[in-house]
Amino acid sequence: MNEYDSNRISDLMSSIDFTKVSEIESADCFIFNTCHIREKATQKVYSDIGKIKKILRGKNKKPIFVLAGCVAQAESSIVFEKSDFVDIVVGPQAYHTLPNLIKNYLEGQKKTFNTDLNVSEKFDSLEYYKNLSSKVSSFITIQEGCDKFCKFCVVPYTRGPEFSRHPDQIINEIKTLVNNGAREITLLGQNVSGYLHEKINLASLIKKISPIQDLKRIRFTTSHPNDFDEDLINIFRDEEKLMPQLHLPVQSGSNKILNLMNRKHTREFYLELIYKFKKVRKNMEFSSDFIVGYPGETEEDFKDTLDLVETVKFSNSFSFIYSQRPGTPAVDYQQIPKEIAKTRLEILQNKLFNLQMKFNESKINTKTKVLLENITKKGNQLFGRNEYMQAVFIEGTKSFPGTEAEVFINSCTKNNLFGTMINN
């Protein structure tokens, strides 16, 4: 979602005659679009501000510096106390005001911030700025915010309550992206499976998007297990353009920990959901998110997570040590020693990586359909992704971005597949 927001911020900046530059020293304005989901991401913001400041030391004119995104939302005017280098602070639901904020700053050189949570106004404003992205695989935000209030999560406080964009706005933007060359669209939301605009849910929206000419693939992320009704399960059976890979965060395999997290589902519910997907589309694969070392997690709870991983056999997953986030309920809970959490993370990641490797190895000596994206820096190699989002590197130099090619897979690593094109 931050990549999508950054692209839209770039579109906004072009409206006031700012263009991207590749060299730090030549920039008149810096915009950091930030993440607040884990402590390390927040710490990196101020570290990187310091690096920019050091590089530009001695420059005659100080550039405008904008801190945008979720760190800006969470810390608001406190940012100015932490860094005198920052001039403008703007939250993720207010970045559409950036052109005016920058104009006002240029006129008065006065530090300012906007952390309003008016997401409806944001998307209405963005209608007037064409999405200039020309990537073969493009993102589009269709939903923001979350009402689930998991006790570890900062999203409801930095992105606000759930909001679903008008379907017409989404379809118009997708058509623009497809005209720019996009052939795959990923629908984004903090809780994208909860999309609901009047009577249009996510399944209905996908049915409206699917007929768009030249659009070959549809994906969506990230979802909450509780939002999948029969319509949203069956859409994987009914729409061929919807890829058979779903990111479905579970966070823990222990019912006790899921309850402490306020996830509002059990491991049994989650496993039954996986079964339902497999029933409607046999070739479905799943990725997930895991938090280890959550307050209250015992060795038995951790073993439940390992057992769930072994049962589902995820094709790819992300795992992290629990990170305390200011303002969330779990921040006040008694914390598990870091060394224990680190050990558990290493065990979990080894299991997840082994499953990922096995999944990749299962593709060797098989054919897979790859959406070609570009030629790699090597110059004699093409890059694309198959229906399971696996990165595929293909021998060859003739690139046809946006076309699907049948590829025979010869070898793999943990993260990549390597093959030769069957049809050109």
Folded structure, characterized:
With 424 residues, this protein is an alpha/beta fold. Among the domains are: 2-118; 367-421, OB fold (Dihydrolipoamide Acetyltransferase, E2P). It is built from 14 helices and 19 strands. It has helices at 2-14, 39-55, 70-75, 78-82, 98-108, 119-126, 155-158, 167-179, 202-209, 230-238, 255-261, 267-280, 299-312, 338-361; strands at 29-34, 64-69, 88-90, 112-114, 137-141, 143-144, 163-164, 184-188, 196-197, 200-201, 217-221, 245-247, 285-292, 316-321, 367-375, 381-385, 391-395, 404-412, 416-421. A five-stranded mixed barrel has the order 15-16-17-19-18. Strands 1-2-3-4 form a four-stranded parallel beta sheet, with helices on both faces. A hairpin with a 5-residue loop joins strand 15 and strand 16. It is globular. The mean pLDDT is 95.
Specify the structural class: alpha/beta
Shape: globular
Largest sheet, in brief, is: 5 strands, mixed, barrel
Cα-to-Cα separation, first versus last residue: 34 Å
Computed CA radius of gyration, to the nearest angstrom: 22 Å
Strands, helices and their partners?
Elements: H1 2-14, E1 29-34, H2 39-55, E2 64-69, H3 70-75, H4 78-82, E3 88-90, H5 98-108, E4 112-114, H6 119-126, E5 137-141, E6 143-144, H7 155-158, E7 163-164, H8 167-179, E8 184-188, E9 196-197, E10 200-201, H9 202-209, E11 217-221, H10 230-238, E12 245-247, H11 255-261, H12 267-280, E13 285-292, H13 299-312, E14 316-321, H14 338-361, E15 367-375, E16 381-385, E17 391-395, E18 404-412, E19 416-421
Parallel strand pairs: 1-2, 2-3, 3-4, 5-8, 8-11, 12-13, 13-14, 17-19
Antiparallel strand pairs: 6-7, 9-10, 15-16, 15-18, 16-17, 18-19
Helix pairs in contact: 9-10, 13-14
